[in-house]
Amino acid sequence: MSVATERLRDRRHLWHVWSPLAADLTRTLLVKGAGAYVTDVDGREFLDASSLNLTCGYAAPDITRAIAAQATLLPGYDLSVASHDLAGALAEAVARLMPTALSRTLLTNSGTEACEAALLIAAMHAANVGRPRTRVITFTAGYHGSTLLSRSLSGLPHLAHPFVTPLPVSRVDLPLTPRQMRAPEALEPLISAFRDALLREPDLPPLAVLVEPLLNVGGGVVLPPAFLGELRRLCDEHGALLVLDEVSTGYGRTGRMFGFEHDDVTPDIVVSSKGLAAGYAPVAAVSVRESIYATFDRDPVLGGLRFGQTTSGHAIACAAALATLELIEREKLVERAAHLGERFLAALRGLVGTGGVIDVRGLGLFVSLEFEDQDAAIRTVTSAAEHGLLLRRQGGVVMAVPPLTLDDADATTLLDRLRQSVEGTA
Q1: I need a labelling partner for 128 at 20 to 30 A (CA). Which of 195, 224, 355, 396 fits?
Q2: Distance CA 47, CA 416 (A)
Q3: What phi and psi values does residue 57 have, to the nearest 5 degrees?
Q4: Are 63 and 320 in contact (CB under 8 A)?
Q5: From CA 191, how far away is CA 420, in angstroms rounded?
Q6: Distance between CA atoms of residues 298 and 296, nearest Å
Q7: Which residues of 46-56 are buried (b: 16+ CB within 10 A; e: fewer)?
Q8: How high is the pLDDT of residue 300?
Q9: Alpha carbon separation from 351 to 75, 100, 218, 338, 357 (Å, rounded)
Q10: In angstroms, rounded to a whole number, what is the distance separating the alpha carbons of residues 69 and 71?
Q11: Are strands 241-246 and 269-272 parallel, antiparallel or unpaired?
């Protein structure tokens, strides 16, 4: 089949997610990847700094071998009927990474499903202990998935939907501009805003506070130091569970295994996904306190959790995840993300004032450049692709999120191409 025919087939039959119908995404039609690079049907090679999932790069031998081996043994099994050895192994591996109290893990297919499961668990737990609650406090600019329940949490315009919102939500606006939020001075007004939200509806006591340690889709917003610690205190004061969405930040992306480790807190529930299997297979984890799990024998219908999918804990996905976690530990990728992140921020802060850049911020290998407007961000992403670099964009913010396996030479290449892209649009 010719390249032109492949592009035509895509444009004629495929509905691309989160994209305008007028956008032609076939201009970059990828066929393979290796390390930090991907190649398209025209033979063009790009350094990929756009995929939050591919934390271990492309064609990682240990992960691909694990997937192939498991495919010949057992692809998966419905965990409501029986179990398989890798499901327990993965749950144990995740538990080892979590604070000791969070020893129980539910496996799902995606971050969206995991966030929905986390809130169902929280609400069912509240009913189990005789304190039924449903109101959730979130960031207006937060993102927790695309199902009806999860998208109802957010105030981001593109997540609006035509249905009745299934639960009461109190949203918190950023009290300062995104580029001001990482300063210590932002802590007091931010905590004050969450305190007001917790108290906003006296007749609806809060069930949970659900936040990301770093706002991803909301603009790569870095939050002030000690924020999660103060939020933990507020949740305890008001009888709300602290639920952290680590879908984008977990497994080393921010220079710590999990984003909440920057503030040294113990959440009640943690949701993780993207980096768990490094993008090689769809899998997510909902890790909860054992004390929450133990209340589910009181469920009046099942005596357990009424949630799951036929492919939850898919064996091939578990194999990919176990190999990923071993690779992260063996290659010290968390430490590498912290080191490279510091290098990137130091090198890129000089771009402020050039090509419309008004801020450079980040944690680990989650680096964001905020532009004065969306058009400037689009020009930079377009220029970067012409220089052989794929970047991520959320509105007027451009993100560089390369694999944690990036070596020093590729890190230099990424920085050079990013500078050329910004300076070329000035």
Answers
A1: 195
A2: 12
A3: 75, -175
A4: yes
A5: 39
A6: 5
A7: bbbbbbbbbbb
A8: 94
A9: 48, 42, 22, 21, 7
A10: 5
A11: parallel
Question: Mind listing the domains of the chain with CATH numbers?
Answer: 3-60+332-423 (3.90.1150.10), 74-330 (3.40.640.10)
Strands of 237-396, DSSP E:
241-246, 269-272, 284-288, 357-363, 366-371, 389-394
Contacts of 174 (CB under 8 A, 6+ apart): 139, 140, 141, 181, 190, 221
Each residue of 300-344: pLDDT tens digit? 999 999 999 999 999 999 999 999 999 999 999 999 999 999 999
Name the packing angle between helices 333-348 and 315-330 (round to 10°).
70
Distance in angstroms (rounded) separating the CA atoms of residues 91 and 94: 5
Structural contact between residues 333 and 55, judged by C-beta atoms closer than 8 angstroms = yes
| Structure tokens, 129 | 């202990």
- List the beta bridge partners of residue 367: 362, 400
Torsion of CA 49, 55, 59, 64, to 10 degrees: -160
Among residues 406, 421, 419, 305, the alpha carbon closest in space to that of 48 is found at 406
